[in-house]
Design a protein that fits this description.
Length: 543
């Protein structure tokens, strides 16, 4: 009634009060309200924020600047004038301050490249950057020579690292920062990137820095982030996938004109999948033919794989029968079956199946083909005995297979399993030519390299070929080795993931739902080069 303004900040933090907020807004009567009254609400994106309040209000959004140049320009304009002469060593300080600004812009912009940039898209803020600049300012002022090690730890581990939860992202952010905080940064013309487009400058004031930034490219090339040029294709693909996913959600459920109806299409898809997906495995026969034995852990692995696949196959066949009955009107079309029908129509894996399946980003048609290949792999093992080479992508739970291999070695040699780790040997031959089992450990195949490629001539990790986002990895001989010392040079330790998304959560077994294991790949380049490239091994692709 008094015409004052009310500001409620961070509404997303008060989820339990959002219902009351919606009621309070609905109770506002315009004819009894002072025309000068305003209600301001601030919130991060949240699914709990009342939709009716959004619909009835004027919405304003604040998005961080996109692109290295715009991000740098914004950061420089926000810095107070006295910051450029803030320490007793202003020339060194300005270079360090600018390096931290460029580092902040780089880690933010890497998110657009998806999993190549970060396994998890972290929400770094201007506050992270400002705290790092403030701490660097104090340390530069107090020490004759900037304490680079302290600066790196404070920035990568404490300030930015406080948000980073993935162990491989922790390695990445520390690796990126070393290019921005080192003694060479104080040298005029120091190149932050290989091309030298982004470099250290001797600018003395804000305007000089802004003039330099205005000369930078509007759209930064992938090399500015340490990535291969193919990363631009990955970025465009990610945007396209998001666009198509939104279009699918908006498409009408009724069809007009000729052609099959929606229900007919769903019924045909269900019938086709029924004919392609194999029946459940005979678990009782598996227990008889492959009994649990102390000397052979692979028997237990096979039994467990059959149990997991049977749960999925049972769910698939049961729900396909139910959806066809529901379409004919013989049973009630439940909410779950309705959602399943929509997924079948949209060529997506139904949630009812995905909840009992292995992680996968494949569309439905490719997913069914992949499932058929997986069940064939298990059936071949069941029919013909333990294979000489193992398709790592075909395991429902590959960690059990890896643990079983270590157990076999430990029991044969009477060693504690916690003293045994993996050694690696690349076998650059088709897996079909390997007709005898590995002398030590196991042969695995079916991996793909993202961000790089394998050079069969040099037998080393090499740059990815133009426009080739993924390339096949040769057979790998996983060798259990007691008390192994990891090499410090000549290798790149690559994480192995089940899907290209790379992001996973801890399951009840203590294992990630996506991460599998590390594998050491021979290389003649510094490991930091491939870390910046975002190189990883993947067991299955999107198609």
């Amino acid at each position: 009634d008094m015409g004052k303004w009310v500001l409620l900040m961070n509404c997303h933090l008060f989820q339990s009060w959002m219902v009351q907020l919606e009621k309070e807004v609905e109770d506002i009567e315009l004819d009894k309200t002072n025309p000068d009254f305003r209600l301001w609400l601030t919130s991060m994106p949240s699914k709990f924020f009342p939709v009716s309040v959004l619909q009835n209000g004027v919405k304003m959004t604040f998005e961080p600047p996109k692109g290295l140049r715009l991000n740098l320009r914004t950061a420089l304009t926000q810095v107070p004038d006295d910051a450029f002469e803030a320490t007793s060593k202003p020339e060194s300080w300005r270079k360090i301050m600018f390096a931290l600004m460029l580092f902040h812009a780089t880690v933010l912009e890497r998110r657009k490249f998806g999993a190549l940039g970060w396994n998890i898209p972290y929400e770094f803020t201007d506050g992270d950057r400002d705290v790092c600049i403030m701490q660097a300012r104090m340390l530069v002022d107090e020490y004759d020579t900037p304490p680079w090690k302290v600066l790196n730890i404070l920035t990568a581990v404490v300030n930015y690292g406080g948000r980073v939860t993935d162990v491989w992202d922790i390695r990445l952010i520390s690796n990126i920062l070393r290019a921005y905080l080192n003694e060479d940064v104080l040298r005029d013309g120091y190149k932050f990137t290989a091309s030298g487009v982004y470099r250290s400058t001797s600018s003395a004031d804000r305007q000089a820095f802004l003039d330099y930034v205005s000369e930078l490219p509007v759209n930064a090339a992938p090399e500015a982030f340490g990535l291969h040029d193919n990363a631009d294709i990955t970025c465009a693909q990610n945007e396209t996938f998001d666009l198509f996913a939104t279009i699918l959600k908006l498409q009408p459920r009724q069809t007009a004109g000729g052609g099959k109806s929606r229900d007919e299409v769903i019924g045909d898809v269900a019938t086709d999948i029924q004919g392609r997906v194999s029946p459940e495995f005979d678990y009782e026969s598996a227990v008889v033919n492959y009994p649990t034995r102390y000397e052979e852990s692979m028997n237990t692995v096979l039994q467990q794989e059959i149990i997991r696949y049977n749960k999925l196959l049972k769910q698939i066949h049961a729900t396909l029968v139910s959806i066809k009955k529901a379409i004919r009107g013989e049973v009630v079309m439940s909410e779950e079956l309705e959602a399943m029908g929509t997924s079948l129509f949209n060529n997506q894996v139904p949630a009812m199946w995905a909840s009992k399946a292995y992680p996968s980003l494949k569309p439905l048609a490719a997913w069914v083909n992949d499932l058929k290949e997986r069940t064939n792999f298990i059936q071949n093992w069941f029919d013909n005995g333990k294979p000489t080479t193992f398709w790592i992508s075909g395991f429902f739970f590959p960690q059990a297979f890896l643990t079983g291999t270590l157990q076999n070695y430990a029991r044969v040699h009477q060693l504690p399993i916690d003293t045994i780790s993996w050694g690696y040997s690349i076998v650059d031959r088709p897996h079909t030519e390997l007709t005898t089992p590995a002398e030590v450990g196991v042969y695995i195949y079916g991996l793909f390299i993202e961000g790089a490629a394998w050079d069969s001539t040099t037998q080393l990790l090499d740059e990815a070929r133009p426009k080739e986002l993924y390339s096949s990895m040769p057979v790998v001989n996983l060798q259990p080795t007691p008390n192994r010392t990891k090499p410090t040079t000549g290798i790149y330790t690559s994480p192995v993931y089940k899907t290209v998304s790379r992001f996973g959560v801890l399951s009840t077994t203590g294992h990630s739902t996506n991460y599998v294991m590390p594998i050491e790949i021979p290389t003649d380049k510094e490991e930091s080069h491939w870390v910046n490239r975002g190189v990883a091994l993947i067991t299955q692709l999107r198609f």
